[in-house]
Amino acid sequence: MKKKITPLVTLFLAMLWLPTAALSQTVAPLPQDQANTEQTKTLRFYLVRHGQTYSNIKEMTIGGGGNAQLTPKGRYDASSLGLGLAEVEFIAGYSSTLGRAYETANQILRGRNMQVKQIEDLKDISWGDAEGGRIDDLTDKFGHSGNDFAFYFGDYNDPAFKSPVNAENMANFSARFEGALRQIAALHPDQNGNILVTAHSSMAFYLQKYRANQPLAGLANTSVSVLELKDGQFHLIDFNNTDYLKSGYAREKALSPLEITLIVNPLTQLQQAGVMEGTTDSDLTDAGEKANQQLHRTLKSTRFIAAYSSELGRAYKTAQRVMADHQIPVQQDSQLNEMFLGHWEAEKVATLKSDQSEAARNLFSANNLIRFVAPNEGENGEIAAYRLDRFLTAIGQKYEFSQGKVIVFTHPLILNAFINKRLPNYSWQPNQGMQVVTLAYKNETFSVMQVK
Description:
The chain has helices spanning 54-57, 72-84, 99-109, 135-142, 149-153, 170-186, 203-207, 243-254, 269-272, 286-298, 313-322, 349-353, 358-363, 381-399, 412-422; strands spanning 42-49, 60-61, 90-96, 116-119, 133-134, 193-199, 224-230, 233-241, 258-264, 304-309, 330-332, 405-410, 435-442, 445-451. The protein is of the alpha/beta class. The protein has two domains: 42-253, Phosphoglycerate mutase-like (Rossmann fold, 3-Layer(aba) Sandwich), CATH 3.40.50; 256-451, Rossmann fold (3-Layer(aba) Sandwich). The strands form three sheets. The protein has a six-stranded mixed beta sheet with strand order 4-3-6-1-7-8. A hairpin with a 2-residue loop joins strand 7 (224-230) and strand 8 (233-241). Residues 1-24 form the signal peptide.
């Protein structure tokens, strides 16, 4: 029987690390203009480990040689951390070139109008031959848990260490990570202030040099460690702090959900002629134009922070009319286009309704449109639902903590399929007139607030 060694610390790359006590209480942010030109420049690096990933959950050994997507919790935690860091004025934001760190940084900084710059040497430590494996695989093969970091990576002050899995050793990683921080500092030669850096749990290996009298400890997902650079020297003033995240949780719970107003105007000449449009397009009828004018008056005083429209003319014209007095551009996106119906495009509605096939029944169903399978080369309901879901979720993530509403101009079939997918217990049937559906979005969840 093979003996497993008790992990020294919780897994940092393949699973979540449990937070350890911070070195200090939450650090007061450094004012951007703290020092004048005669004083020594001081920079504070807010080092944040990325949010939870699917590889963390699956206990995988994915380091610098691969990427894993953030889980919904990982995205939520990153956004909440952004709220918790709201009082910290950042002069810049950086991340490693791995997607999990880059996405975390953008979630933290959303609403700040700050571009995240990627630095290659901030990447996670490499697991070498063990990239993409499992902790249990290492334990079985070497008799040392994958959490026994000294066995696989050596020590931060031992550059001669040779890893049994050809992993990058701690010393070499620490040298390149510090080089990356100094590279960032060189990009801000005349500034004082706070800089966000999102990277990986292996930052703990580098930070150990400032904690030499303490056991090696891990970094929790979305924890904050603060490293100050002054007179060319680094000083660790906070380590593995999760108070910012807890503060963000409290603030997030107090916020109202984002309102997304979806507009559907099917009053077109082809509809009037009894023709199924799909992506086939036609001008609005007089009734369609009047509906636009009425909605324009109704929404004139509503504060919208963003407006999106399908690329089809009937939706874009509706958007232009309704948003005429709003000082924001209408952004067109093909993801908002109506379902493509293949050979059923421009077919008579009466002909399709008389069809006895399952596809025809689902096409005109309130609750089963998502099960529609195009008879020829059209778009299936599930694909259309996913398309709109992906778009609206991205909008929600972008504006969730903003003050204002988002308006989206789309089409009845794809909206119906989306509601089937995300709100399966809610029944919505497109009708022959203009409809306004208001959704609430919070923490990647949609709900219907109002239908008119």
